[in-house]
């Protein structure tokens, strides 16, 4: 018999890990709610036709397809079977797929429920997504996203508030040195116009988006393969490598893109967002204009975001942007939207490395009742009920065992307090109440214990 295993890029989570993850989810959820966002959920699987064509060619290849039920090959054409071309065969043997992200399912949800929602519609969603990617550090095939989106509002206040949401949520999670990088796809469109190749905008953004991974030489190589020439790259290089403060970068862009209407619109939108932060104060985040930020997903049309921490080596822990045309793909035109996502799994890895989880997030119960014999066990039952009635998480050790074993159970589960019940406690009503961290032990009534808890 082979050993049990799980697919690469997926993980089991222990009770402690789930508790820590829930701490992240709850923190982010509370910030979303504070800014007026409401929860929805969508199915694990979507129709394959819903997902394809929304993420670019590379993204489409990373969608997990689900084979049709039954004999899925029986309805496939003989010609396509013999061609051994998986792309042409896919839609004949697969009608459904696991969701790749939460944004496209949200756009589909808005179109299907457009008569039930109030615009602007602000929703948050915390659910797993799946990508057929190559697993590596910080990159999984199954992972959670924590998304917030608003549709039906063109106001750039939404973009500014998303920066505030990142700032507040990550600060509450203990991050102290992180950046919210921002750019605008209209600026990138202006650059492609300046070069004279607006039709290659997608190829340009996909290549630029890899700058951190492959360097400028790698970007140049990819652009040359996509139809750009050396003269184009000479124009592009000083723009990509633009430096200085946010204000200096905007001034340089105004000069560079003075002949591009779409480029100037992108600059004006960025200036509006930055102006909001003359009123709003950021707690820990640094807001940085990054011309190299491209976000490879095809549906972005305006502001784009990416969040990185400087405290550990890790890829982006959040990102998003504005998408004016996404619901149009499902038949609902002229409905603009903007949204961001937190990469909960990467956030978890960073917090674990930096030891940012509070101790009390690990404890499963606040108090354990231990006992010496069956008589003490029975005496403990109404005490257990009284503690739980006070809304304090508590356990009674279920077996008649040695006290050493019961104390080890409390230590292993990181339960901070233990009540010890024996003959003396039953006679006097004063229970032995032990602080497991300090070792201090007191004789207290159950009422006094509840006050301390």
What can you see in these coordinates?
By secondary structure, the chain is α+β, with helices and mostly antiparallel strands. The chain has 2 domains: 15-44 and 100-354, BirA Bifunctional Protein, domain 2 (2-Layer Sandwich); 363-452, Rossmann fold. It has helices at 15-34, 48-51, 56-61, 78-83, 86-93, 103-112, 157-172, 185-195, 201-208, 211-225, 230-240, 246-256, 261-276, 344-354, 374-389, 403-412, 423-428, 446-452, and strands spanning 38-39, 45-47, 65-66, 96-98, 121-130, 142-151, 178-184, 286-289, 303-309, 318-323, 337-343, 367-371, 394-396, 417-421, 431-435, 441-444. The protein has an 8-stranded mixed beta sheet with strand order 1-5-6-11-10-9-7-8, with helices on both faces. The protein has a 5-stranded mixed beta sheet with strand order 13-12-14-15-16, with helices on both faces. Strands 2-4-3 form a 3-stranded antiparallel beta sheet. The longest helix has 20 residues, at 15-34. The radius of gyration is 28 Å and the shape is globular.
What can be said about this structure in brief?
This protein is an alpha+beta fold and 453 residues long. It has helices spanning 15-34, 48-51, 56-61, 78-83, 86-93, 103-112, 157-172, 185-195, 201-208, 211-225, 230-240, 246-256, 261-276, 344-354, 374-389, 403-412, 423-428, 446-452, and strands at 38-39, 45-47, 65-66, 96-98, 121-130, 142-151, 178-184, 286-289, 303-309, 318-323, 337-343, 367-371, 394-396, 417-421, 431-435, 441-444. The protein folds into 2 domains: 15-44 and 100-354, BirA Bifunctional Protein, domain 2; 363-452, Anticodon-binding domain (Rossmann fold), CATH 3.40.50.
């Amino acid at each position: 018999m082979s050993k049990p295993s799980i697919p690469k890029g997926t993980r089991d989570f222990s009770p402690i890990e789930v508790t820590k993850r829930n701490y992240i989810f709850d923190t982010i959820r509370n910030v979303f709610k504070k800014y007026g966002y409401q929860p929805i959920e969508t199915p694990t699987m979507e129709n394959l036709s819903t997902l394809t064509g929304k993420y670019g060619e590379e993204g489409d290849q990373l969608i997990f397809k689900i084979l049709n039920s039954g004999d899925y090959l029986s309805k496939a054409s003989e010609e396509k079977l013999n061609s051994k071309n998986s792309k042409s065969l896919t839609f004949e043997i697969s009608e459904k797929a696991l969701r790749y992200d939460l944004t496209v399912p949200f756009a589909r949800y808005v179109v299907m429920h457009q008569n039930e929602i109030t615009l602007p519609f602000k929703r948050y969603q915390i659910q797993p997504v799946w990508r057929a990617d190559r697993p590596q550090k910080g990159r999984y095939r199954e992972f959670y996203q924590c998304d917030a989106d608003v549709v039906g509002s063109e106001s750039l206040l939404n973009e500014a508030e998303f920066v505030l949401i990142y700032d507040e949520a990550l600060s509450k999670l203990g991050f102290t040195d992180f950046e919210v990088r921002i750019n605008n796809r209209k600026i990138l469109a202006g650059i492609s116009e300046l070069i004279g190749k607006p039709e290659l905008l997608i190829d340009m953004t996909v290549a630029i988006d890899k700058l951190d991974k492959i360097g400028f030489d790698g970007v140049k190589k990819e652009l040359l393969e996509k139809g750009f020439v050396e003269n184009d790259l000479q124009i592009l290089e000083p723009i990509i490598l633009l430096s200085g403060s946010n204000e200096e970068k905007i001034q340089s862009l105004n000069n560079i893109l003075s002949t591009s209407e779409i480029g100037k619109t992108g600059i004006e939108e960025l200036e509006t967002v930055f102006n909001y932060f003359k009123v709003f104060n950021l707690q820990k985040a640094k807001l940085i204009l990054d011309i190299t930020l491209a976000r490879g997903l095809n549906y972005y049309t305006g502001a784009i975001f990416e969040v990185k921490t400087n405290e550990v080596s890790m890829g982006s822990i959040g990102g998003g942007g504005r998408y004016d045309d996404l619901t149009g793909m499902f038949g609902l035109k002229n409905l603009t939207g903007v949204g961001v996502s937190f990469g909960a799994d990467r956030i978890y890895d960073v917090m674990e490395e930096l030891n940012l989880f509070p101790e009390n997030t690990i404890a499963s119960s606040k108090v354990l009742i231990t006992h010496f014999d069956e008589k003490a066990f029975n005496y403990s039952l109404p005490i257990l009920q009284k503690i739980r009635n006070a809304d304090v998480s508590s356990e009674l050790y279920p077996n008649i065992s040695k006290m050493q074993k019961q104390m080890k159970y409390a230590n292993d589960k990181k339960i901070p307090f233990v009540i010890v019940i024996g003959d003396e406690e039953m006679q006097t009503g004063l229970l032995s109440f032990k602080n497991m961290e300090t070792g201090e032990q007191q004789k207290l009534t159950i009422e006094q214990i509840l006050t301390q808890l």
